[in-house]
Amino acid sequence: HVTVFPNPASEKVVVQLRNPTQVKVELQRLNGQLIQSQEEYGQRFMFEVDDLPKGIYLLQVQSESGARVIRKLVVQ
Questions:
Q1: pTM, rounded to two decimals
Q2: How far apart are the first and last CA of the chain?
Q3: pLDDT one-digit tens code per residue, 16-66
Q4: CA angle 76, 45, 47 (to 5 degrees)
Q5: Are 60 and 26 in contact (CB under 8 A)?
Q6: Please, which residues have CB within 8 angstroms of residue 65's CB and are 6 or more apart in sequence?
């Protein structure tokens, strides 16, 4: 289970997982271009988005087991 908030966002985005786990979290443009990436163990991850142009982005969360969740993110 993955929750992304606030959405839409203007400064920071929080990615909240149900349980702490080893994950790779990527923020991408709709064309697949990678903007930010984090690999770490935890339950909560934060991305700064205040320097990004307004638009729609993708947040991809991939666990060690290979499970992948993608969420759309609106930056205002």
A1: 0.89
A2: 25
A3: 999 999 999 999 999 999 999 999 999 999 999 999 999 999 999 999 999
A4: 30
A5: yes
A6: none
Please, which residues have CB within 8 angstroms of residue 15's CB and are 6 or more apart in sequence?
2, 3, 4, 25, 44, 45, 46, 47, 59, 61
Query: Any idea where the domains of the chain sit in the sequence?
Result: 2-75
Q: What is the CATH number of domain 2-75?
A: 2.60.40.3080
Q: Nearest 5°: phi and psi at 25?
A: -115, 125
- For residues 65 and 7, give the distance between their C-alpha atoms in angstroms, rounded to a whole number: 27
